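Board notes, transcribed. Complex of a protein with GNR.
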Amino acid sequence: MARLKILTFPDPKLRKIAAPVNKFDKSLNKIVSDMLETMYEAKGIGLAATQVDIHKRIVVMDLSEEKNEPRIFINPEFMILDDKSLFSCEEGCLSIPGITEEITRPDQIKATWQDIEGNYFEDKPTGLLAVCFQHEIDHLEGKLLVDYMSSLKRDRIRKKALKA
Ligand code: GNR
Ligand code: NI
């Protein structure tokens, strides 16, 4: 296993769109295990491959207290089932350290993904799992928390990050 470097805003590589995974081989296993190590080390609850400069549709998560329930989502997708059912959450992001923002997102979604062997799954996550699923898919599409903020706030965060 290896710990990977997490890209931070405003790195333009965070804006790349990830490509679907179509080979469920050893190299996918290696990426996933490195991403899990990187996520645990950084004390995040989720990590998208985009954040470690790998532009493939791979997400890892662990929402458990004990940090012993790794979840792996290959080619994750979601559909909004009810656009009137919303959930607000104070979100953080490993790629925008030190910043949190309250974001409102759909709470009733249908999620689909593949596992590391390519088997297909679906579920209807709610609450934090639904939030995290959408947050990570945003990364795969090159979208970040700052995109939900006012441009004034975003520019302030950008300037601070560039100065540091
Ligand atoms: O560690 C993380 N915490 C978090 C909290 C609320 C909503 C989303 C998240 S994801 C974030 C890790 C991360 O940046 N994943 O992309
Ligand atoms: Ni993030």
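The chain has one domain: 12-162. The chain has a mean pLDDT of 98.
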